[in-house]
Amino acid sequence: MKRLFLAFVASLMCFSTIDAQQWAVTTNLAALADLGTLNVEAAYSPAQHWTLDAGVKYNPFTYGRGEGQFQQRHQTWWAGARWWPWHSYAGWWLSGKVQYQEYNFGGIFSDRTEEGDKAGFGVTAGYTYMLTSHLNMEFGLGLWGGYKWYAVYACPKCGMKLDSGSKPFVLPNDLMIAISYVF
Q: Is the CB of residue 112 less than 8 Å from the CB of residue 105?
């Protein structure tokens, strides 16, 4: 997966016919630090104050064995838009998105494991600092809420179901310390 991500970023850098400052590729360093969650986001600017973006986060990793096993496995997909008061890819911004997540979290704070699906809407606010004409640093924080369908198990490996169902949720999302390459 890491090689696929690097090949994707390298191929985007090879395009020479793309209009300047209309496309960007971003990776969130804070997500990478969160148990190795791989992530990439692509954005397009159709107007001075707007960008459209889509992205994916993926974490297939399980850590430890037996009693000490824990995981935060998930795949998350989203699409949304950002509004930039000054101009795209610089300064303050607000965004909204739709998001879907398939997840399996457990063993981190307790022996219980929860797996399921979440779908909903998110809002994020942040600031983008221009390091060079093509390289930006992004900072942001957001919330997302919606509905989840879940099952809770007694431990990460035992498979003894304790609960299942569906319910609404509101969670923090998008703790961003990201690096972005603007074409």
A: no
User: Position 85: which residue type?
Assistant: P
3-state secondary structure of 108: coil
Rounded CA-CA distance 38/57 in Å is 6
Tokens, residue 143: 């919330």
Closest to 46 in 3D by CA, of 94, 100, 103, 84: 84
Q: How far apart are CA 150 and CA 116, in angstroms?
A: 4
- Give the other-Cβ count within 10 Å of 154's Cβ: 14
Instruction: Write out pLDDT tens, residues 71-115.
Output: 999 999 999 999 999 999 999 999 999 999 999 999 888 889 999
What count of residues does the chain have? 183
Q: How far apart are CA 81 and CA 100, in angstroms?
A: 16
- The answer to whether 97 and 121 are in contact (CB under 8 A) is yes
B/e letters for 110-148, b = 16+ CB within 10 Å, e = fewer, are ebbbbbbebebebebebebeeeeeeebebebebebbbeb
pTM of the complete model: 0.85
